[in-house]
Amino acid sequence: MVETILYEKLQKKRVRCNICQRRCTIKEGERGYCRTRINREGKLFSQIYGMVSSIMISPAEKKPFFHFYPGSLWLSLGSFGCNFRCPGCQNWDIAHSDVKDDLKSARYISPVELVNIAKERNCLGISWTYNEPTLWFEYTLDGAKLAKINKLHTNYVTNGFITPEALDLIGSYLDVFRVDLKGFSKETYRKIANVENFKGILEVIKRAKRKWKMHVEIVTNVIPEYNDNEEELREMAKWIKKELGKDTPWHVTRFFPHLDLSYLRPTSVEKLEKIREIGFSEGLQYVYLGNVPDHPGENTYCPNCGELLIQRSVFDIKKFILIDNKCPNCKTVISGKF
Questions:
Q1: How many CB atoms are located within 10 Å of the residue 75 CB?
Q2: pLDDT for 88-114, tens place per residue?
Q3: Is 53 exposed, middle or buried (0-12, 13-18, 19+ CB in 10 A)?
Q4: DSSP conformation letters of 129-184
Q5: How far apart are the first and last CA of the chain?
Q6: How far is it, in rounded angstroms, from Cα 216 to Cα 155?
Q7: Are residues 41 and 190 in the same domain?
Q8: 11 and 71 part of one domain
Q9: Which of 125, 207, 237, 249 could bridge across to 153 with cysteines, CB 3.0–4.6 Å?
Q10: Which range of residues forms the domain containing residue 67?
């Protein structure tokens, strides 16, 4: 185990973890909400440093982020545990893990080995994903520092519940902050994530964009009966435009039943199309549909003339006609890195 950073020592050998916004107070011998950090005699230790549950090479489109080197390959890996444990989680087998019982099935990969694998497999960068990357913060920080030295890009696929001070430690080493914004009300976040105040997530997203100049893309997995209220989603679209910019990609993705929400039906395509139109009507330039193969909403169009610039089919690029980040038809600059 590795002693964690960003924690406070309290009286009676208790500690307060300051990695995520739950800021758990943990008694001696106990673990925090995420189950990955344990108090041993008044010191806080990570149980998952370098402990990899899942690893593969995936395209950027799978994350998804569409405006940061489309078609690029990323060494993608996750560990165990989560600070949300959503009822419909698609990676519930690792995210809802009790951690200590599953570590024997994990593979240890050092930060040096991680970078070497990415380079050997010609990956553009490293993506910490599958479960919440904040939970193995010390490992991702060490890996991100080495990645930068080796000219690799870095990405968090995150719920955005990291603390501002943790974000500031890793901010200069992260290139892409792909955030799941699960709703836009206290009630929605309470139902989905057992979180009482989601405003801290909004502040972190703005901080990643404004202070650390990360490339930010937002994903909202639309769950029937949980976060599909159109007026709430309209408010989300307004916030994205106002605080992150009209050129921030918003991915509206189709929910498929999992775990405790197995009784629900998949989100209707018609519902997703309506939400996409809401995003456009509020001034967003790039609103995408996800988990709907070969839908036109997967594609990137010029916001000025409507030219089809990038055509996608699931995770594949079928057409790409951008020239120097510009639409070849009207010369409009398309936001992102291509």
A1: 25
A2: 999 999 999 999 888 989 999 999 999
A3: buried
A4: -SS-GGGGHHHHHHHHHHHHHTT-EEEEEE-S-B-HHHHHHHGGG--EEEEE---S
A5: 40
A6: 10
A7: no
A8: no
A9: 125
A10: 51-298
Q: Are residues 16 and 105 in the same domain?
A: no
Q: Which residues pair with 302 in a beta bridge?
A: none
Length of the chain: 338
Pairing of strands 308-313, 316-320: antiparallel
176/245 same-domain check: yes
Which amino acid makes up residue 219? V
3-state SS class at 211: coil
Looking at the structure, tell me whether residues 17 and 91 fall in a common domain: no
Give dist(CA 206, CA 212) in Å, integer: 9
**Considering the domain boundaries, does residue 324 fall inside one?**
no
For the question of whether the overall pTM of this predicted structure is more than 0.70, the answer is yes
Give me the amino acid identity at 48.
I
The C-alpha angle 34, 55, 61, rounded to 5 degrees, equals 95
Q: 130 and 20: one domain? A: no
Q: What is the pLDDT of residues 160-193, one digit of tens each?
A: 999 999 999 999 999 999 999 999 999 999 999 9
